[in-house]
Amino acid sequence: MFTICGHTLHPGEKKQTALRPVCGYEMPSTIICGAKPGKTVLITAGIHAGEYPGIPAVIRTAKELDPAQVAGNILMVHCVNTSGFWARTDCLVAEDGGNLNANYPGASDGTVSQRVADYFVKQIFPYVDFVADLHSGSQQEPLMPCLFFPKWEKVREEALSAAKALDIPYLIQSMAKTGEYSYAAHTMGIPSILLERGHSGFCEEAWIESYQKDLRLLLRHLGCYPYNGQPTVEKHVFMKTIYLEAEENGVWYCNVKPGDTVKKGQLLGRTEDFYGSVLHEYYAESDGIVFYHCCGLSVKAGRNLVAYGVEKAG
Ligand SMILES: [Zn+2]
Protein backbone atom coordinates (compact mmCIF):
# COMPACT_ATOMS: atom_id res chain seq x y z
CA MET A 1 0.00 0.00 0.00
CA PHE A 2 1.08 3.59 -0.57
CA THR A 3 -0.52 6.41 1.40
CA ILE A 4 0.34 10.03 0.66
CA CYS A 5 -1.54 13.35 0.89
CA GLY A 6 -4.68 11.55 2.11
CA HIS A 7 -4.76 9.03 -0.77
CA THR A 8 -4.21 5.31 -0.24
CA LEU A 9 -3.39 3.07 -3.20
CA HIS A 10 -2.89 -0.67 -3.41
CA PRO A 11 -0.06 -2.35 -5.36
CA GLY A 12 -0.59 -1.98 -9.11
CA GLU A 13 -2.87 1.08 -8.78
CA LYS A 14 -2.59 4.48 -10.46
CA LYS A 15 -4.69 7.50 -9.53
CA GLN A 16 -4.88 10.90 -11.22
CA THR A 17 -6.21 13.58 -8.92
CA ALA A 18 -5.61 17.13 -7.72
CA LEU A 19 -3.70 17.62 -4.47
CA ARG A 20 -4.95 20.58 -2.43
CA PRO A 21 -2.28 22.19 -0.27
CA VAL A 22 -4.55 25.19 0.33
CA CYS A 23 -8.35 25.33 0.17
CA GLY A 24 -9.27 25.97 -3.46
CA TYR A 25 -5.70 25.51 -4.72
CA GLU A 26 -5.26 22.47 -6.97
CA MET A 27 -2.07 20.74 -8.06
CA PRO A 28 -2.88 18.15 -10.80
CA SER A 29 -1.04 14.98 -9.85
CA THR A 30 -0.55 11.28 -10.54
CA ILE A 31 0.05 8.78 -7.75
CA ILE A 32 1.31 5.29 -8.56
CA CYS A 33 1.67 2.40 -6.15
CA GLY A 34 3.89 -0.06 -8.00
CA ALA A 35 3.15 -3.74 -8.23
CA LYS A 36 6.59 -4.42 -6.73
CA PRO A 37 8.39 -2.79 -3.77
CA GLY A 38 11.02 -0.11 -4.32
CA LYS A 39 11.86 3.54 -3.78
CA THR A 40 9.28 6.33 -3.57
CA VAL A 41 10.05 9.06 -6.10
CA LEU A 42 8.67 12.59 -6.28
CA ILE A 43 8.69 14.34 -9.66
CA THR A 44 7.51 17.95 -9.92
CA ALA A 45 7.11 20.46 -12.73
CA GLY A 46 5.75 23.98 -13.00
CA ILE A 47 7.12 25.33 -9.71
CA HIS A 48 8.05 28.23 -11.96
CA ALA A 49 4.86 28.33 -13.95
CA GLY A 50 6.21 29.76 -17.23
CA GLU A 51 8.99 27.19 -17.47
CA TYR A 52 6.92 24.98 -19.70
CA PRO A 53 8.68 21.89 -21.16
CA GLY A 54 8.67 19.92 -17.89
CA ILE A 55 4.89 20.19 -17.55
CA PRO A 56 3.89 18.24 -20.72
CA ALA A 57 6.80 15.83 -20.12
CA VAL A 58 5.34 14.95 -16.72
CA ILE A 59 1.76 14.83 -18.08
CA ARG A 60 2.78 12.38 -20.83
CA THR A 61 4.98 10.23 -18.60
CA ALA A 62 2.25 10.03 -15.96
CA LYS A 63 -0.20 8.87 -18.62
CA GLU A 64 2.17 6.28 -20.09
CA LEU A 65 3.51 4.55 -16.96
CA ASP A 66 1.94 1.17 -16.33
CA PRO A 67 1.65 0.58 -12.55
CA ALA A 68 2.02 -3.16 -13.12
CA GLN A 69 5.60 -2.47 -14.25
CA VAL A 70 6.47 0.00 -11.47
CA ALA A 71 8.72 -1.00 -8.58
CA GLY A 72 8.14 1.38 -5.67
CA ASN A 73 5.87 4.41 -5.67
CA ILE A 74 5.81 7.51 -7.84
CA LEU A 75 4.16 10.85 -7.11
CA MET A 76 4.12 13.21 -10.07
CA VAL A 77 2.88 16.77 -9.59
CA HIS A 78 2.21 17.94 -13.15
CA CYS A 79 2.13 21.63 -12.27
CA VAL A 80 2.83 22.93 -8.77
CA ASN A 81 2.27 26.64 -9.36
CA THR A 82 -1.13 26.43 -11.05
CA SER A 83 -2.20 29.95 -10.08
CA GLY A 84 0.94 31.33 -11.71
CA PHE A 85 0.32 29.12 -14.75
CA TRP A 86 -3.14 30.59 -15.38
CA ALA A 87 -2.03 34.13 -14.54
CA ARG A 88 1.13 33.73 -16.69
CA THR A 89 3.35 35.10 -13.96
CA ASP A 90 6.45 33.42 -15.49
CA CYS A 91 7.84 32.25 -12.14
CA LEU A 92 5.92 33.45 -9.11
CA VAL A 93 2.80 32.30 -7.29
CA ALA A 94 -0.01 34.59 -8.41
CA GLU A 95 -1.63 35.18 -5.02
CA ASP A 96 1.39 36.51 -3.15
CA GLY A 97 4.38 36.76 -5.51
CA GLY A 98 6.14 33.94 -3.64
CA ASN A 99 8.95 31.99 -5.29
CA LEU A 100 8.53 28.25 -4.64
CA ASN A 101 12.20 27.73 -5.45
CA ALA A 102 13.27 30.05 -2.63
CA ASN A 103 10.64 30.18 0.14
CA TYR A 104 11.09 26.85 1.94
CA PRO A 105 10.16 25.66 4.53
CA GLY A 106 7.10 27.93 4.22
CA ALA A 107 4.49 28.21 6.97
CA SER A 108 1.22 26.41 7.71
CA ASP A 109 -0.55 29.69 8.58
CA GLY A 110 1.21 31.83 5.97
CA THR A 111 0.42 33.09 2.47
CA VAL A 112 -0.51 30.70 -0.35
CA SER A 113 3.08 30.05 -1.50
CA GLN A 114 4.22 29.56 2.12
CA ARG A 115 1.45 27.05 2.67
CA VAL A 116 2.28 25.16 -0.53
CA ALA A 117 5.92 24.86 0.63
CA ASP A 118 4.78 23.76 4.09
CA TYR A 119 2.56 21.10 2.48
CA PHE A 120 5.53 19.59 0.63
CA VAL A 121 7.67 19.67 3.77
CA LYS A 122 5.07 17.99 5.98
CA GLN A 123 2.83 15.92 3.70
CA ILE A 124 5.22 14.77 0.96
CA PHE A 125 8.96 14.91 1.77
CA PRO A 126 8.78 12.58 4.81
CA TYR A 127 7.47 9.83 2.53
CA VAL A 128 9.81 10.06 -0.47
CA ASP A 129 13.31 8.72 -1.20
CA PHE A 130 14.22 10.88 -4.21
CA VAL A 131 13.12 14.26 -5.63
CA ALA A 132 13.44 15.46 -9.23
CA ASP A 133 12.19 18.96 -10.05
CA LEU A 134 11.86 20.09 -13.70
CA HIS A 135 12.57 23.70 -14.66
CA SER A 136 13.63 25.77 -17.68
CA GLY A 137 15.37 29.06 -18.23
CA SER A 138 12.90 31.84 -17.54
CA GLN A 139 11.53 34.24 -20.14
CA GLN A 140 14.75 36.20 -20.55
CA GLU A 141 17.19 33.44 -19.71
CA PRO A 142 18.48 31.28 -22.60
CA LEU A 143 20.33 28.26 -21.22
CA MET A 144 22.13 25.03 -21.99
CA PRO A 145 20.46 21.94 -20.53
CA CYS A 146 21.91 21.71 -17.03
CA LEU A 147 21.16 20.17 -13.68
CA PHE A 148 21.80 21.17 -10.07
CA PHE A 149 22.77 18.65 -7.43
CA PRO A 150 23.25 19.34 -3.69
CA LYS A 151 26.66 19.94 -2.13
CA TRP A 152 25.91 18.15 1.14
CA GLU A 153 27.98 14.92 1.25
CA LYS A 154 25.17 12.88 2.78
CA VAL A 155 23.06 13.17 -0.38
CA ARG A 156 25.51 14.35 -3.01
CA GLU A 157 26.77 11.04 -4.35
CA GLU A 158 23.32 9.51 -4.75
CA ALA A 159 22.01 12.66 -6.45
CA LEU A 160 25.08 12.96 -8.69
CA SER A 161 24.93 9.32 -9.70
CA ALA A 162 21.31 9.81 -10.79
CA ALA A 163 22.31 13.01 -12.61
CA LYS A 164 24.98 11.16 -14.55
CA ALA A 165 22.39 8.62 -15.72
CA LEU A 166 20.40 11.35 -17.55
CA ASP A 167 20.97 13.13 -20.88
CA ILE A 168 22.01 16.53 -19.53
CA PRO A 169 25.56 17.79 -20.22
CA TYR A 170 26.27 20.22 -17.37
CA LEU A 171 25.93 18.97 -13.78
CA ILE A 172 26.33 21.81 -11.29
CA GLN A 173 26.97 21.52 -7.57
CA SER A 174 24.70 23.89 -5.66
CA MET A 175 24.63 25.22 -2.12
CA ALA A 176 21.02 26.49 -2.36
CA LYS A 177 18.87 25.46 0.62
CA THR A 178 15.50 27.17 0.41
CA GLY A 179 13.94 25.77 -2.78
CA GLU A 180 11.84 22.63 -3.11
CA TYR A 181 14.61 20.23 -4.20
CA SER A 182 17.35 22.02 -2.24
CA TYR A 183 15.38 22.04 1.04
CA ALA A 184 14.52 18.37 0.56
CA ALA A 185 18.24 17.64 0.05
CA HIS A 186 20.02 19.90 2.50
CA THR A 187 17.50 19.91 5.35
CA MET A 188 15.64 16.63 5.04
CA GLY A 189 18.45 14.46 3.70
CA ILE A 190 16.66 13.33 0.52
CA PRO A 191 18.82 12.91 -2.61
CA SER A 192 17.39 15.49 -5.01
CA ILE A 193 18.10 17.13 -8.35
CA LEU A 194 16.81 20.17 -10.24
CA LEU A 195 16.80 19.92 -14.04
CA GLU A 196 16.84 22.81 -16.51
CA ARG A 197 15.91 22.35 -20.17
CA GLY A 198 14.43 24.84 -22.64
CA HIS A 199 13.92 28.53 -22.02
CA SER A 200 12.34 31.88 -22.80
CA GLY A 201 8.69 30.87 -22.37
CA PHE A 202 8.81 28.48 -25.36
CA CYS A 203 7.76 24.84 -25.24
CA GLU A 204 9.50 23.14 -28.15
CA GLU A 205 8.58 19.53 -28.83
CA ALA A 206 12.25 18.47 -28.79
CA TRP A 207 12.64 19.81 -25.24
CA ILE A 208 9.53 17.97 -24.06
CA GLU A 209 10.72 14.71 -25.62
CA SER A 210 14.19 15.11 -24.13
CA TYR A 211 12.61 15.66 -20.72
CA GLN A 212 10.47 12.53 -21.20
CA LYS A 213 13.67 10.60 -21.90
CA ASP A 214 15.34 12.10 -18.80
CA LEU A 215 12.40 10.94 -16.67
CA ARG A 216 12.59 7.40 -18.10
CA LEU A 217 16.36 7.29 -17.57
CA LEU A 218 15.89 8.51 -14.00
CA LEU A 219 13.18 5.96 -13.17
CA ARG A 220 15.32 3.19 -14.59
CA HIS A 221 18.37 4.36 -12.63
CA LEU A 222 16.31 4.33 -9.42
CA GLY A 223 15.10 0.81 -10.18
CA CYS A 224 11.49 1.95 -10.61
CA TYR A 225 10.73 1.28 -14.26
CA PRO A 226 12.21 -0.63 -17.20
CA TYR A 227 13.50 1.38 -20.16
CA ASN A 228 15.60 0.53 -23.21
CA GLY A 229 16.89 3.99 -24.15
CA GLN A 230 20.46 5.07 -23.47
CA PRO A 231 21.94 8.45 -22.53
CA THR A 232 24.00 9.90 -25.38
CA VAL A 233 25.30 13.19 -23.99
CA GLU A 234 28.77 13.59 -22.46
CA LYS A 235 28.57 14.87 -18.85
CA HIS A 236 30.67 17.60 -17.24
CA VAL A 237 30.52 18.09 -13.48
CA PHE A 238 31.14 21.57 -12.11
CA MET A 239 31.96 22.04 -8.44
CA LYS A 240 32.02 25.85 -8.62
CA THR A 241 29.86 28.29 -10.57
CA ILE A 242 30.10 32.09 -10.77
CA TYR A 243 26.75 33.89 -10.78
CA LEU A 244 27.57 37.35 -12.12
CA GLU A 245 25.17 39.99 -10.76
CA ALA A 246 24.42 43.51 -11.98
CA GLU A 247 26.05 46.13 -9.80
CA GLU A 248 23.51 48.82 -10.69
CA ASN A 249 20.39 49.35 -12.81
CA GLY A 250 21.28 49.58 -16.47
CA VAL A 251 20.66 48.78 -20.13
CA TRP A 252 22.38 45.40 -20.54
CA TYR A 253 24.32 44.19 -23.59
CA CYS A 254 25.54 40.62 -23.29
CA ASN A 255 28.57 39.35 -25.24
CA VAL A 256 28.21 35.62 -24.57
CA LYS A 257 25.77 32.79 -25.28
CA PRO A 258 24.93 29.55 -23.48
CA GLY A 259 27.60 26.93 -24.14
CA ASP A 260 30.33 29.52 -24.90
CA THR A 261 33.77 28.90 -23.45
CA VAL A 262 35.10 32.05 -21.77
CA LYS A 263 38.62 33.00 -20.79
CA LYS A 264 39.67 34.87 -17.66
CA GLY A 265 39.57 38.60 -18.40
CA GLN A 266 37.14 38.24 -21.34
CA LEU A 267 34.41 40.89 -21.61
CA LEU A 268 31.10 39.17 -20.76
CA GLY A 269 28.90 42.23 -21.29
CA ARG A 270 28.28 45.81 -20.27
CA THR A 271 25.60 48.07 -18.92
CA GLU A 272 24.91 51.51 -20.28
CA ASP A 273 22.58 54.32 -19.29
CA PHE A 274 19.76 55.54 -21.54
CA TYR A 275 22.13 58.01 -23.21
CA GLY A 276 24.62 55.32 -24.31
CA SER A 277 27.30 55.97 -21.69
CA VAL A 278 28.93 52.83 -20.32
CA LEU A 279 28.10 52.26 -16.66
CA HIS A 280 29.96 49.03 -16.08
CA GLU A 281 31.93 46.45 -18.03
CA TYR A 282 31.83 42.90 -16.70
CA TYR A 283 34.83 40.60 -17.21
CA ALA A 284 35.20 36.87 -16.56
CA GLU A 285 36.95 36.19 -13.26
CA SER A 286 38.12 32.83 -14.48
CA ASP A 287 38.06 30.45 -17.45
CA GLY A 288 34.70 28.71 -17.69
CA ILE A 289 31.63 27.60 -19.66
CA VAL A 290 28.45 29.69 -19.85
CA PHE A 291 25.35 27.87 -18.59
CA TYR A 292 22.85 30.70 -19.00
CA HIS A 293 22.59 34.46 -19.26
CA CYS A 294 20.09 37.29 -19.12
CA CYS A 295 18.98 38.34 -22.60
CA GLY A 296 16.74 41.14 -21.33
CA LEU A 297 17.77 44.71 -22.07
CA SER A 298 16.60 45.93 -18.68
CA VAL A 299 18.54 44.82 -15.62
CA LYS A 300 18.24 46.02 -12.07
CA ALA A 301 21.01 45.91 -9.46
CA GLY A 302 21.37 42.36 -8.16
CA ARG A 303 19.93 40.71 -11.29
CA ASN A 304 21.77 37.61 -12.44
CA LEU A 305 23.55 38.46 -15.72
CA VAL A 306 25.61 35.37 -16.57
CA ALA A 307 26.20 32.03 -14.84
CA TYR A 308 29.35 30.17 -15.80
CA GLY A 309 30.95 27.06 -14.39
CA VAL A 310 34.62 27.40 -13.56
CA GLU A 311 35.79 24.35 -11.68
CA LYS A 312 35.33 20.93 -13.22
CA ALA A 313 35.47 17.81 -11.13
CA GLY A 314 38.04 15.18 -12.02
ZN1 LIG B 1 12.85 27.65 -12.49
Task: Please explain how this structure is put together.
There is one protein chain. With 314 residues, the protein is α/β, with parallel strands linked by helices. The chain has two domains: 2-221, Zn peptidases (Aminopeptidase); 240-312, RNA polymerase II/Efflux pump adaptor protein, barrel-sandwich hybrid domain (OB fold (Dihydrolipoamide Acetyltransferase, E2P), Beta Barrel). 21% of the residues lie in helices and 35% in strands. It has helices at residues 54-64, 82-87, 112-124, 153-164, 180-186, 205-221, and strands at 2-4, 7-9, 13-22, 25-33, 36-45, 71-77, 130-135, 146-150, 170-174, 192-196, 236-245, 250-254, 261-262, 267-272, 278-283, 288-293, 298-299, 304-312. The strands form three sheets. It has a twelve-stranded mixed β-sheet with strand order 3-4-6-5-7-10-8-9-11-18-16-13, with helices on both faces. Helix 1 (54-64) packs across helix 6 (205-221). Residues 48, 51, 101, 135 line the site of zinc ion. Zinc ion binds at residues 48, 51, 101, 135.
Task: Give a short synopsis of this structure.
The chain has helices at 54-64, 82-87, 112-124, 153-164, 180-186, 205-221, and strands at residues 2-4, 7-9, 13-22, 25-33, 36-45, 71-77, 130-135, 146-150, 170-174, 192-196, 236-245, 250-254, 261-262, 267-272, 278-283, 288-293, 298-299, 304-312.
